[in-house]
Design a protein that fits this description.
Helix content: 55-70%
Number of helices: 20
Structural class: mainly alpha
Strand order of the largest sheet: 1-2-6
Distance between the termini: 76 Å
Number of strands: 9
Shape: extended
Radius of gyration: 32 Å
Length: 496
């Protein structure tokens, strides 16, 4: 059309003709074109086609219409992922959608600020729609998978994966819920030595600090300090301990209660050699520090046992001895050591001899009997559930080609009760933060109406909070005489 105008019309006429042509072919058809095109372009990731459409619409002043259409399509795409995808795939699909949208923003929309804000609004909408705690939990679980040993990423790929997770984290409203689940998973990686890269762990915490402030990462940074201090502490202990304790390969990590998640403390019956090592370490530690106490927690402890299996004379005429090393949890080691005293024990006898909680001893025994090929223990009992009368016998015919054998624990997915406990702790922390916001606002303003106070709390809160929750905290502060009701209805006054 431009060439035809140049050949047939004067320059002044050509501009008017172009305006008329654009109005008829583009502006009047813009809504139809956007309705049919944007959905397909996003779904099929047709960046160049979107670029052409944006250029055409920009020429007739319809950028806002393109932005609105793109925002609606991204919202609907993200909402569909949140509602229809499997829980383990949601984060992967959201990351893929985010990568496609970022490329479209960069190439088709030329990094327009208004389109960037539209993208931010869309992701914040569907990620926090419904229960925002679920999105935070799923992202924390995905972050754990990429930071754990065995992840498929190289060093460069790991940094890229962290950046991708970081892009989604910034859309979360329940960032404190993410921190709670992330801290729980980080604790396991640090204690069990399962981190794929300590540099990546530190970088993730640094990103959290830059985004949310130093107070957000205080506990996370305290965990790293404990790990680093524990290495020096063990070196000093091994220099003064008995050779017998040193030969055990005993190691212990001191964790400060305020920084780490809470682990169950059970009255476990440790072997005598472990008790001697624990007492020696306790004496050494308390000699270096005053006013402190130590409690030994076996929940995440690891142990390596040396096993001598004397084969049956019927199977091996020579009665030869096979030596193996078994790498297992402390709970598994405590149970297996009971078979040094007897070849066969009942479930009730094992529970009484070890002192393990009911759930843990059941998981432990299942880990020994679950190997159908060649289990360490042979169970005599009926049904899937263990009964007190079930008998367990050490398998004298145990065979393995490996010298060092990893005995896996029965892995349990996070139960609803465990998730609920984490969310409850987060809810309690939020109550204190809401109290602090209310007191800080009232101290500065002295006197506010109920509506104005609600607006100030919503403005200052960094997590989702409802008006009913704020009202409960106001009532609590009134009871504790931080605030008092003013003579004017619906007005509060700060009490110094």
């Amino acid at each position: 059309e431009i060439g035809r105008c140049q050949a047939l019309f004067q320059p002044a006429t050509m501009l008017k003709m172009l305006d008329i042509t654009r109005h008829a072919l583009v502006k009047l058809q813009c809504s139809t074109m956007l309705e049919k095109g944007v959905q397909d372009f996003v779904a099929e990731h047709r960046v160049q086609d979107m670029c052409r459409m944006y250029t055409i619409c920009e020429a007739v002043g319809e950028v806002a219409a393109v932005r609105s259409a793109w925002l609606a399509v991204v919202k609907s795409s993200g909402t569909a992922i949140m509602k229809t995808a499997e829980s383990d795939d949601i984060v992967e699909k959201l990351l893929q959608l985010k990568a496609h949208c970022d490329e479209m923003l960069r190439v088709a929309f030329r990094n327009s600020v208004s389109f960037a804000m539209a993208l931010k609004d869309a992701f914040e909408y569907f990620i926090n729609d419904g229960n925002p705690n679920v999105s935070a939990q799923l992202l924390a679980r995905h972050t754990d998978r990429i930071l754990k040993v065995g992840s498929k990423f190289s060093d460069a790929g790991l940094d890229e994966a962290i950046d991708s997770c970081w892009g989604l984290f910034r859309f979360l409203m329940a960032q404190d819920v993410f921190e709670a689940f992330f801290r729980k998973d980080l604790a396991k990686r640090l204690i069990l030595g399962k981190s794929a890269s300590m540099e990546a762990e530190v970088r993730m915490v640094q990103l959290l600090r830059e985004e949310c402030g130093a107070g957000f990462t205080t506990k996370l940074e305290g965990m790293f300090r404990d790990i680093n201090a524990g290495k020096a502490l063990m070196d000093s202990f091994l220099q003064v301990c008995d050779p017998e304790i040193e030969s055990l390969g005993f190691t212990c990590q001191v964790l400060t209660t305020v920084s780490w998640p809470t682990y169950p403390i059970s009255e476990v019956w440790y072997p005598a050699s472990i008790i001697r090592a624990q007492e020696a370490f306790k004496t050494h530690y308390l000699g270096m520090h005053t006013g402190r106490s130590l409690k030994f927690v076996a929940h995440l402890g690891q142990c390596t046992l040396r096993m001598n299996v004397i084969q049956s004379v019927f199977a091996m005429p020579t009665g030869s001895c096979t030596k193996k090393e078994l790498s297992m949890s402390m709970y598994q080691a405590i149970v297996l050591l009971q078979f040094n005293q007897a070849d066969t024990l009942t479930f009730a006898e094992l529970q009484a001899a070890t002192g393990l909680p009911d759930l843990e001893i059941r998981r432990t025994l299942l880990s020994f009997t679950g190997n159908k090929g060649c289990p360490l223990l042979v169970r005599e009992g009926k049904g899937q559930d263990l009964a007190d009368s079930d008998r367990f016998t050490f398998n004298g015919e145990f065979k393995s080609k490996l010298f060092r054998i990893l005995v896996n624990r029965v892995q349990l997915k996070e139960t609803k009760d465990e998730i609920k406990k984490v969310e409850t702790r987060v809810s309690e922390d939020r109550q204190y933060q809401v109290d602090a916001i209310i007191v800080r606002v009232m101290k500065a303003r002295k006197r506010l109406t109920h509506t104005a106070l609600l607006e100030e709390v919503f403005k200052n809160a960094t997590f989702p909070v409802t008006a009913s929750e704020i009202k409960k905290r106001i009532e609590s502060l009134l009871d504790r005489e931080y605030l008092t009701r003013d003579h004017a209805p619906g007005t509060y006054t700060y009490m110094a």
